[in-house]
Amino acid sequence: MRVQYLVAGLVLSAWSAAAPAAWQKASSPHFIIYADDKPERLRAYAEKLEKFDQAVRYARKMPDYPVGDGNRVTIYVTRTVSAVQRLANDQSRMVAGFYIPRAEGPLAFVPKTTGFADMDADVVFFHEYAHHLMLQELDRPVPEWLVEGFAEFMSTATFEKDGRVALGRAANHRAVGLFYTEGLPLETLLAGNYDRLTDIQRESIYGKGWLLTHYLAFSDTRKGQLDTYINAIGKGTPALDAARTAFGDLKQLDRDLDKYLKQRTILTLFIGADIFKPVAIDVQALSAGAAEVIPLRMESKRGVNGKTAEPLAVKVRKIEAAYPNDLLVEVTLAEAEIDSGHPQASEAAADRALAIDPRNIEAMIFKGRAIIAGALESKTEDRKRFDEARTWFLRANKLDTEDPEPLMEFYKSFVMEGLAPTKNAVEALHYASNLVPQDAGLRLNSAVRYLQDKDAKKARETLAPIAYDPHGRGMASMARNMITKIDAGDAAGAKKLAEQGETDEGDATGSQAH
């Protein structure tokens, strides 16, 4: 895949330092995990992640709609932190792992052990997955302090011996910022203007954001105020004005927060053991070829560019020569070949994968993409080739109607052919965006499509979740500016902003370490 949207700061819980037996793959309802570790350890970790998912959904009253195989979070576990840092191209060596939300399937790259003493590994993983879940149900703008505060609230989850899960424990990893530094003033935090912050002030978005979120969640005297605040922002009220309307005297709120911080104990939400349902988890050892190609598959999925695509493809070809007709090897090669500009070779690899497993959706998608890339390369503009490619996307969709990638590719095929997308293609785009609201680029395309179809209201609703995405940066800023234009009755101006952004920035990306 080509590089897209990156969020840094994700690590797994402690893995065994002992030498593992072989690469394993664990599959559960919401996760796919690849790890070079013992099967029983991998199973236990998958169970823990699924339990956390259930706990957050229960606390938030979130539905748990079926997740397509292509839309589960795939976690690649590396042997070392330095391997993660190489994948992230992290020169600072501060990244312990990272998460990429995308229509092709959300990804996480994590090490077995971290070596970081200041923040527990589970804390960071749960923080990022809380973002994933929060973005899944957002239908209105939410300020950055609350997005991070919610993630921090969930990040300290603990698993009790009696089967309960505790949410909202103290964020001790934020203690230095809360107690010993002069952080962000409350009014600045609530105003949401974070363009020129020091590192210490930015820490307050996390620390004070957690404190305010925790206080408003448990305070008897301020029940309903948070909803009032968010609803006002959703209607276009400036954030600071919405805060004054919802919370009243902000100086008093600041004093209340200070008192709340200094109390000896804080409330914790316990989710009873009886609410958790057992989940099916399948753990399988990878074949020798698959185990060999996994490190290269990580690089491919992380994203390549003009300099790295061909060298990676060369390496995958060598593995395919040694292990022909291995399913994971062939689909990895199909991706490497199309990324390096060899559509015919990509299609051939996809065909070999489909000969092994005719129902493999990943192979179907690469075959369709390769057909289109080949047609564009030859400049034949052969409509039959585009129609053929679309049949593969439709086959993939029939096998998994909740996988957003075939839907997205079906829509893109019309754009790449230079045709106006059909009604079905437009519906596929919007449904794909709804299935993976975490993919800001796809969601922006959906919003622009609504603007093209003169539906400014739906465009605004679609933009809202990414407008205050704390990791969105350029994309989030664009979404906020587009919403401002829409609210002013200038839908054409909003559409123009998006078109200029595509020209000036390409794929708007954002990154933020935790």
TrEMBL record:
The keyword Signal applies. Keywords: Signal. Residues 491-514 are annotated as: Disordered. This is DUF1570 domain-containing protein. It comes from Sphingomonas telluris. Residues 1-21 form the signal peptide.
